[in-house]
Specification:
336 residues; mainly beta; seven-stranded antiparallel β-sheet
């Protein structure tokens, strides 16, 4: 009986010691940052233009605006006269709703534990917006042919409270895009290759098939990793005190998406070989079309996950508008 009691005490002591060792050394059990405050911004640079601005034209390049056309025009208003119009790409703030003027978008976002963000749980942060003000212009004006968008994200841990506040810089993303302001009436050959015909858009469709305003303008993107951009933040372990033996660097992943104004995945897709050729991106590229005589707005959004985003990328390009699990729930909720 004494021997059994002694064995029980020894077993309990060993078990307790092993449990304590697991708690102390098993720093992976410490909770990750569950909520961050954030600031995110995007700017234009490296704009390129085709042709000259013309005697009455003006090409403007600034961090938050690329505009071209009639120097006295207002790109937010279609005058109805292509000689007096102006077009633009502008960066706005999707949090405030401003479509021009830029400025960092700020807010709070919850960490996704795992790799599938839930928009209904506050796991998608809203960033900046990009608007194309697409007004008809005469061919006498030079047009935008491409530029670079640089997107930055700065985080600050809020919860759990034992994390010491401090700025964490997520990886900077750079999007190199090509732009083509296509002739409204269509001047591409049948099938979209070259300039051998009239009345066809770059995708091979007729200009008339797009309605009275004709062929849409084109954006095309070179390969840019927008999903699973890893960064690390020092975890203070179970004791919540930095500088102790249980500290370790925890890896998080930042993924960027583009949504439309209804918070649905923006309709980016693989463009046709003819469209990619017109953009100078070979025969395979991704991008989107914007209707003539209209404005189109896309919003940048992002998620912070503890595991790699679980939806596979199409090819080597993580589509900016990749639809992910949960976005459909927003639409369903609004429809009820």
């Amino acid at each position: 009986m004494k021997q059994l009691f002694k064995q029980t005490i020894i077993h309990s002591a060993v078990t307790a010691s092993a449990l304590m060792l697991s708690i102390v050394s098993g720093s992976a059990q410490a909770a990750p940052v569950s909520e961050w405050s954030y600031s995110t911004d995007s700017t234009f640079s490296n704009a390129t233009w085709s042709g000259g601005a013309g005697p009455s034209g003006l090409e403007t390049t600034s961090p938050y605006e690329l505009s071209w056309g009639y120097s006295g025009g207002n790109f937010q208003v279609n005058s109805g006269n292509s000689d007096l119009n102006r077009s633009a790409l502008t960066i706005g703030n999707a949090v405030t709703g401003n479509l021009t003027g830029g400025t960092p978008a700020t807010g709070n976002v919850f960490t996704t534990i795992g790799g599938t963000p839930n928009p209904l749980a506050g796991q998608i942060g809203t960033g900046i917006s990009i608007t194309h003000w697409n007004n008809p212009l005469t061919s006498s004006y030079g047009t935008l042919t491409g530029a670079t968008i640089t997107d930055t994200l700065t985080l600050n841990p809020i919860l759990p409270s034992y994390y010491i506040p401090g700025l964490v810089t997520a990886p900077t993303l750079t999007f190199n895009f090509k732009f083509q302001e296509t002739p409204n009436a269509g001047e591409f050959g049948l099938g979209g290759f070259g300039h051998g015909g009239s009345g066809f858009c770059a995708d091979g469709k007729t200009a008339a098939s797009y309605g009275p305003n004709g062929c849409p303008d084109l954006f095309g993107f070179s390969n840019t990793l927008t999903l699973n951009n890893a960064f690390q933040y020092l975890d203070s372990g179970l004791d919540g005190i930095l500088g102790n033996s249980d500290d370790f660097l925890r890896t998080y992943y930042a993924s960027v998406f583009v949504l439309d104004t209804a918070n649905q995945a923006f309709p980016l897709s693989q463009l046709t070989a003819g469209e990619c050729g017109v953009l100078g991106l070979g025969t395979s590229c991704y991008g989107f079309r914007t209707a003539e005589a209209d404005d189109t707005t896309a919003k940048f959004a992002f998620a912070i996950t503890t595991d790699r985003f679980s939806v596979p990328e199409p090819g080597s390009l993580a589509l900016l508008g990749l639809a992910f699990a949960g976005l459909g729930a927003i639409r369903q909720r609004k429809a009820r």
